[in-house]
Amino acid sequence: MGNTTTEKQTKHDKENPVNFHPNKASVSSLLTKPQFSRKNPFLSKIKARRILNKDGSIKKTWHIVLDCPQMGLHPGDSIAVIPQNPKELVDAYLSRLGPVTIVHPKTQEEMSLEHFLTHHACLNSLSPRLAKHLAIDKARDPLTVITELDPQTFANLAQPLLPRYYSLASSFKRYPNELHLLVATFSYNIEGHTYPGIATNFLATTTEPVPIYPHPNPKFHVPQNDIPLIMIGPGTGLAPFRGFMQERGPHSENWLFFGECHRATDFYYENEWEALHDRLTVTTAFSRDQREKIYVQDRLREHAEELRSWLNRGAHIYVCGDAKHMAKDVEAAITEIYGPVRDLRKAGRYHADVY
Ligand SMILES: Cc1cc2nc3c(=O)[nH]c(=O)nc-3n(C[C@H](O)[C@H](O)[C@H](O)COP(=O)(O)OP(=O)(O)OC[C@H]3O[C@@H](n4cnc5c(N)ncnc54)[C@H](O)[C@@H]3O)c2cc1C
Ligand SMILES: NC(=O)c1ccc[n+]([C@@H]2O[C@H](COP(=O)([O-])OP(=O)(O)OC[C@H]3O[C@@H](n4cnc5c(N)ncnc54)[C@H](OP(=O)(O)O)[C@@H]3O)[C@@H](O)[C@H]2O)c1
Known about the structure:
disordered N terminus, alpha/beta, about 30% helix, five-stranded parallel beta sheet, 16 strands, Rossmann fold, 14 helices
């Protein structure tokens, strides 16, 4: 998941992101300066936001358009989003802990508990340190158990609220000064309380500027020539390939494997793929449209012979999305079809961005 950044409290972390000075420079003057960082994020405005799933879907996956300078980014890279906890969750904590002032445990800065809860603590799960302190299981409902704590102890032992990463789902060549994201929102229930995913729900609901900074991944960039590409991206793993296809040449050969729950409701950007039919083959795996689950790796196996022919002609494979199951299953399928993935990796022809 996105919680891979090491925690470093910075001067800006201490400030309320909503009080950051708005970026004064125009977007175009920023094009040459990739200076944005966690300490100095770009405050991006949300230009548009819509749910891609059709009525009746069990998913809520958003297409989000941010106002954004290029920041040295290319399809295959991600941005880091600095999220806030939702007000209702902050209020629920405040009503249990009290509206007091606390000292930030790392910076020693005094701040209201409300500010700390909004910007500095992860509120949708219990930190291992809090669970240990309370001698309880980490799977317990945080709102039930924090009533045992004084506010400063909570602040000392809370999990820091870290940035989350999102793949670029567009190319700056096609959409200058704009960045598109594909974001799957979710919530889950712990002992009767519903908790949101923090960054996904922040992106889906906020009306304030979104603090972002670049998170490049040069190993996952789209090749600058017409090498055939095999792109495997179920779910939000699809995001970078929309950006890739906005950069691929008219004579390039491209093959996309996409998987989601149902064709009728979850076929993201279907019209855009259709418009690219002269250079793009799309093979889909809608897992829940039939009794037996069908996943992208099943489709890879079905097309083994043609895939071997593409790979024999030098095709590169790009895989994006779930690391826990999908990436391993896809690797196993490619190994069966063509041989060890490590050989393709060594040759710089197997690229994975999985999370
Ligand atoms: C390089 C990279 C690129 C990425 N690109 C994208 C992208 O393009 N689109 C996208 O949507 N995501 C992407 N992600 C994932 C993204 O960074 C976030 O991890 C994801 O959106 C969840 O963030 P969140 O803050 O909403 O959830 P969080 O608040 O971080 O919650 C997630 C956590 O909730 C807990 N949890 C979840 N379900 C349950 C449950 N049922 N019961 C108990 N606990 C539960 C787990 O601890 C889980 O780790 C990417 C990640 C990386 C590393
Ligand atoms: N590492 C992680 O923890 C991680 C990574 C990605 C997404 N997620 C979470 O999952 C939720 C939705 O994510 P998403 O929208 O990107 O979709 P997703 O859950 O990745 O699902 C996309 C498609 O992949 C299928 N799938 C499930 N297991 C698979 C496997 N082993 N191999 C290949 N395909 C498989 C799903 O089928 P079925 O659902 O029908 O089985 C669905 O059709 C979010 O809550 C997100 O945070 C977590």
